[in-house]
Amino acid sequence: xxxxxxxxxxxxxxxxxxxxxxxxxxxxxxxxxxxxxxxxxxxxxxxxxxxxxxxxxxxxxxxxxxxxxxxxxxxxxxxxxxxxxxxxxxxxxxxxxxxxxxxxxxxxxxxxxxxxxxxxxxxxxxxxxxxxxxxxxxxxxxxxxxxxxxxxxxxxxxxxxxxxxxxxxxxxxxxxxxxxxxxxxxxxxxxxxxxxxxxxxxxxxxxxxxxxxxxxxxxxxxxxxxxxxxxxxxxxxxxxxxxxxxxxxxxxxxxxxxxxxxxxxxxxxxxxxxxxxxxxxxxxxxxxxxxxxxxxxxxxxxxxxxxxxxxxxxxxxxxxxxxxxxxxxxxxxxxxxxxxxxxxxxxxxxxxxxxxxxxxxxxxxxxxxxxxxxxxxxxxxxxxxxxxxxxxxxxxxxxxxxxxxxxxxxxxxxxxxxxxxxxxxxxxxxxxxxxxxxxxxxxxxxxxxxxxxxxxxxxxxxxxxxxxxxxxxxxxxxxxxxxxxxxxxxxxxxxxxxxxxxxxxxxxxxxxxxxxxxxxxxxxxxxxxxxxxxxxxxxxxxxxxxxxxxxxxxxxxxxxxxxxxxxxxxxxxxxxxxxx
Length: 580
Description:
alpha/beta, three-stranded mixed sheet, 19 strands, 16% strand
C-alpha cells in the first residue's frame, strides 16, 4: 500500500504542475519583468578583455590601467551571474568521456596570482579577469593530506585522486600496508590500489596519459604503477636501494610490460632515459640510457604495437605529423628528462600541453565506448620549488590553455572535465598593493621602510642572508633594484631550503559536464575518482547506469500496482481539466 500511495502522490503532483503551467505562474518571468533584469539581458556593459599574449615576459610596470566601477557595475555583475546560475541545469546523463586535468602544485593562491598575471599580460589590471577553468559551474575543495603525512607529496596524492584510496607518502598505487621502500609488501597484489585507468579499460574505453614532466614521475605514474617508492623510475634506482629489480619492478618497466600500462592508447611526456639501456645513447643528449637490465623498453613497445597501428615519436614536429585516423597507439617521449618550460619549447622541439591534448583527443575519440584521459601540468610545481613565481604563473596559463582546447573539442553532454591539484605550495600574496599593481613587483614597505614584493614564499632557495646596517641592525636586504621581470628571479623566502616545500592547505576541484554537480563542499581527495567512475559507469562502486536501471525497474514495478479503475479515474481528471 505504501508503494501505491507514493505513486498516487507522484501523479497528483504532476497534475498540480500541469495546472500551474496552464495558469502560467512563472517565477523567472516575474523576475525578468524588472528593469534591472532587462538591462542585464540587453546591455553589453561588461568589461571584455582581449586575447592573452604568447606568454612573453611583461615589461616591469608599477600599475596597470583599470576602470573604476561604480555601484551599478557591481549590482549588474552580481545579477548577471545570478541569472546565469538560475539558468544552469545539472547534466545527469552518462559521461562517455572523462578528462582529468591535474595542475601539479596548483594552489588557490597560484590560481589567483595567475589570473592577475594573465590580465596584466593583456595590459589590464588583472584582478577582474579569470582563467578559463574558473568559469566551470561546479566547485569543491579537496583535502590533500595523506595517510601518514599532514602535507602531501605528488605520490600519495596520486593514489587518492586516481585510485580513490589514501596511501603513505612517497608510495604510489598501493595501500597503507606498504611503507616507503618496502618491496616485499609492494609485490603483494592484495596491497595494490587499482586506478581509474584500469576501471576504464575494463569497461572497454580507450585511455591516455599526458604530462610535461617525466612520464614515470609521481603524478602520471599514479595511473598505472604500484610502487613502494616514487624514485624507482628505472631499475638502477631499485638496485641503489638494496632491492632486486627482477622482483621489485621499476615504474618504467610497469608502464611497458604490466597492466594497465601496456594497454594505454596514448602516452605522451618526457623521461626517455628511464626506458633506454646504458648501451643505447639518447638521440637528443647522446648520453647513455639509465637501465642496467639491458632492456630497451621503447623497442619492446614498438614490437608489441607493430600490428596494432602503434607509433613512437620524439619531437613536436613528429606529433604534428601524426595520422590520427590510422594511429590507435601512440608513445611520445620528447625529452630524456622533463619537457622544457614554455619559453624554451621552440629550441627543444618539445610540444605544448595543448598540442598533446589535441592529438590525444583525436585518437581516443575513435572508440565508440569513450575514453579516460589524464593530463598533468607538472612544471607549475617545479617552478614553485625554485621560488620562480613568474615561471609558475606562465606554466599555469599554459595549463589553462590546454583545458580550454579540450573543452572546445568535446561536448558537455557526454564529457566530464575535472580540474584539480595534488597539493598546494607555500607562495602567498602579500598586502597591500594598489589595484592593478604589477603582481611580480613590490607591494609595500616593511617597518624599516624596505620594500617587499607582492609574491613571496614561506621557504625555499629564495632566502636572502640578513644584511647588517647601523640603523636597522640585522634585517632584510633592499630589493628595490631586483630584476623582477627575469624568468630566473627567485621571490624572497622566509626560511632557507634548497627546494621549497609543498603546502598543506586545501586545493580546488573545478568541474563541468555529466554529474559535475557532485563536486561540491569540502571533500577528501580520494572522493574525486569515485565521482568520475559513477558518471562514466566504470569501476566497482555505485554507478549512474546501475542507478538508472534500478529506478526504471522500480518505476515499472510500482506502476503495475495501480488498478485499472484508479488509472481510469486519473486519466479522466486530466482529460476533463484540459479539454472539457
